[in-house]
Amino acid sequence: MSDPNPVRVLGFAGSLRRASLNRALLRAAVELAPPGMTLTTFDLADVPLYNGDVELGGDPPGVAAFKQAIREADAVLMVTPEYNHGVPGVMKNAVDWASRPPRGAALDRKPVGIIGASPGMTGSARGQSQLRQAFEFTNSYCMPQPEILVFRAHEKFDAEGRLTDEPSRKYLGAYLEAFAAWAMRFKSPN
Ligand SMILES: Cc1cc2nc3c(=O)[nH]c(=O)nc-3n(C[C@H](O)[C@H](O)[C@H](O)COP(=O)(O)O)c2cc1C
Does 83 sit in the ligand 1 pocket, CB within 6 Å? Predict the structure, then answer.
């Protein structure tokens, strides 16, 4: 029987590449989401670069849809690559839009999970750490542990982008269980 009151999670990846390892990791998360969680995804392709002048005239449609999707979710799962030891612009730009206006923003008091993948040996660790810092300012509840750092990620997905590495699948499943419990702490009963 399905859970009558599941934790609703919105997931998005900070890469626009069709063959993105991080988009593939997000798909794996959808596949492995535990019974008490619904995980829907949002594509950041239609979120333009942040511009305060544009914002003054109202959120562009892609931004409005993004913020609305976050507001409707109980929690947000961000799947981030690492670029130059930091957060890629695609992901940071999305967070910047969703942090506006300060206080009362879509990310305010929202539980957040961060995972990521990289072909390198650190599995996006520095990108993830840097992304965490943003949630001090946005007043979001970023889950401290566990972590998912998919290192040598190009070896862990098949040609169709399916996560085939069994330990990674196990860790991701356990992470999602922990994230569901984390998000549940902040969910108001309805
Ligand atoms: C501009 C740029 C900078 C990068 N810097 C890093 C880095 O600092 N650390 C790392 O592990 N990988 C780095 N990479 C490699 C990315 O991890 C790799 O391209 C990865 O596949 C990107 O994520 P995606 O597959 O989800 O698009 C970089 C790639 C690009 C394009």
Answer: yes
Summarised one tens digit per residue, pLDDT across range 46-95 is 999 999 999 999 999 999 999 999 999 999 999 999 999 999 999 999 99
Distance 28 CA to ligand 1 centre (A): 19
Spatial CA neighbour of 95 closest among 107, 80, 83: 107
pLDDT value at residue 4: 73
Per-residue pLDDT of 134-143, as tens digits, reads: 999 999 999 9
Q: CA Rg, the chain, in Å? A: 16
- Do 150 and 21 form a contact (C-beta atoms < 8 A)? yes
| Residue 62 Cβ contacting ligand 1 at under 6 Å | no
Q: Whose CA is nearest to atom 30 of ligand 1?
A: 83
Residue 24 CB less than 6 A away from ligand 1: no
